[in-house]
């Protein structure tokens, strides 16, 4: 099942690249009417600016998800950093290269302070609140007609919208594999359908889980399990 899912992720990743490069509608580069306004955060359409901002919040949520247990053979941090500029283009390869259903054998790569920050309820609460405010602002004050027109005339808006949808679906996959590893109900994956917020809820719910965690290297965890079994 894991191999099949990784192959499907590879197909999706390649299809997304081909679409973005050759088939995305609208003007690109300097001719894109929304490129400069969005990059300089001066767009006058709340719905577009909100979507652009959410694509900056999504990588923060994935950072909380991945960096707290970054002990796989393939490190997560390079993909997380790239995701701030490339979104799903950067995160999909991590899940393609890494089996996320089994605990790794590598010691964690980050300082304890960073790991604690990724599991902090304060961090999760701030991200949750900011995301909720940005979503509400875009939905309440945005013009769907303007967004629809920009989707067809701006390559940036078109690709970033699909990127947002892919990140949402990737959240479902990430929660599903994480739930399997923790022996939690796999129906929790449905939380991922709530963009960013669902991922943050799952992260908060599992922040104190020590079964795959963090603070004890995997070899030490194995020794502790053996001692527990003999004790």
UniProtKB/TrEMBL annotation:
This is DUF2834 domain-containing protein. The chain crosses the membrane at residues 7-28, 48-67, 79-97, 122-144, 156-176, 188-205. Keywords: Membrane, Transmembrane, Transmembrane helix. The keyword DNA-binding does not apply. It comes from Saccharibacillus endophyticus. The keyword Transferase does not apply.
